[in-house]
Amino acid sequence: MKRCWVSLLCFVLLTISANAQAPAGTADAHVAAAKAAARQDYSGVINLCNPPQPAAGQRATPPAQQTNSPAQRTIPPASQWYAEPSKVFDNLYFIGSKDVSAWAITTSDGIILIDSLYDYSVEEQIANGLKKLSLDPAKIKYVVVTHGHGDHYLGSKFLQDRYGAHIILSEADWNFMANDRNAAQLKPKKDMVATEGQKLTLGDTTLTLYVTPGHTPGTVSVLFPVKDGNQRHLAGMWGGVGFNFPRTPEAFKTYGASARRFQDIVAKAGVDVHLTNHSGQDKTLDKIAALKTRKPGGPHPFVVGNDAMKRFLTVVSECADAQ
Ligand SMILES: [Zn+2]
């Protein structure tokens, strides 16, 4: 009888302690939800749930974002950032660097870019990258800049000046970019403004832009169609992932709300291809390598299904809630 009471007591205590681990709504519960959603494919983003680490020597932003003057900057050698350009779908090309991605969408009337890399990598990686892929950089008509951080916009001025490409950011991020610490002469002159739900059409292809504040005040997320032989897919990109903004409760709420709203959009639209603007977030370079050994008619490594991008957005929104 005594043993029975002891085990009953243990059972009760264990139950209480198990529930105490992660009651709904706590940071631990949000982290657990994010981890469950991340699985293996999004293990690269689960560190968003970690507490902030302002430890010495840790760099929150790339060097180009940290100084005012181009002369003061340390420009890294190409060996540190160069990545081979690659065809990913019949109308989509990877022209990004090792860490920061840029994408070219080909249409019947020219090329639309998503993001423009740095001022020091744009010519080698984007202009020469397109040429390597037998595409003409002079046909770049639009550059959708997902957000006003230097690693995504500093190449825009080159594309604007050399090819007359239209540069598109949200109003909030035009302002955000205008007020950042990069030298004014590195910035594109103000051009087109992305608005919520805007359709950007070039020739036979239409992109839909969504203003999803969080990572920056006016981060733009994008949906667009891609082609693989006779197969048609819908690609989605979440415009900015990291929590490198002033860490206020309001900022995390804004981020989480945008991610959940975009998750709904992704679900309703039936996005089945998930693209990112930093390769580590979805192991882009591994997928490109897998594409090279793809058997004819075999599964396309970038066609991950609707559930995958929804899980990705669960990871980022749950981590935002946890923070
Ligand atoms: Zn950013």
Number of strands: 12
Tell me, rounded to a whole number, the average pLDDT.
Answer: 90
Helix proportion: 25-40%
The CATH class is Alpha Beta
Q: Can you identify the CATH superfamily? A: Ribonuclease Z/Hydroxyacylglutathione hydrolase-like
Known CATH architecture: 4-Layer Sandwich
Which strand order does the major sheet show? 1-2-3-4-5-6-7
Give me the number of helical elements. Answer: 10
Q: Please give the domain count.
A: 1
The biggest beta sheet reads: 7 strands, mixed
**Derived structural class:** alpha/beta
User: What fraction of residues sit in β-strands?
Assistant: 15-25%
Element layout with pairings:
Elements: H1 2-21, H2 27-38, H3 78-81, E1 86-89, E2 92-94, E3 103-107, E4 110-114, H4 122-132, E5 140-144, H5 150-153, H6 156-163, E6 166-170, H7 171-178, E7 192-194, E8 199-202, E9 205-211, E10 220-228, E11 231-237, H8 249-269, E12 273-275, H9 284-292, H10 306-322
Parallel strand pairs: 4-5, 5-6, 6-7, 11-12
Antiparallel strand pairs: 1-2, 2-3, 3-4, 8-9, 9-10, 10-11
Structure description:
It is a single chain. With 323 residues, this protein is of the alpha/beta class. It has one domain (28-45, 78-322): Ribonuclease Z/Hydroxyacylglutathione hydrolase-like (Metallo-beta-lactamase, Chain A). The protein is 35% helix and 19% strand. It contains 10 helices and 12 strands. The strands form 2 sheets. Strands 1-2-3-4-5-6-7 form a 7-stranded mixed beta sheet. It has a 5-stranded mixed beta sheet with strand order 8-9-10-11-12. The model is unreliable at 8-20 and 55-67 (pLDDT under 50). Residues 147, 149, 215, 240, 242 line the site of zinc ion.
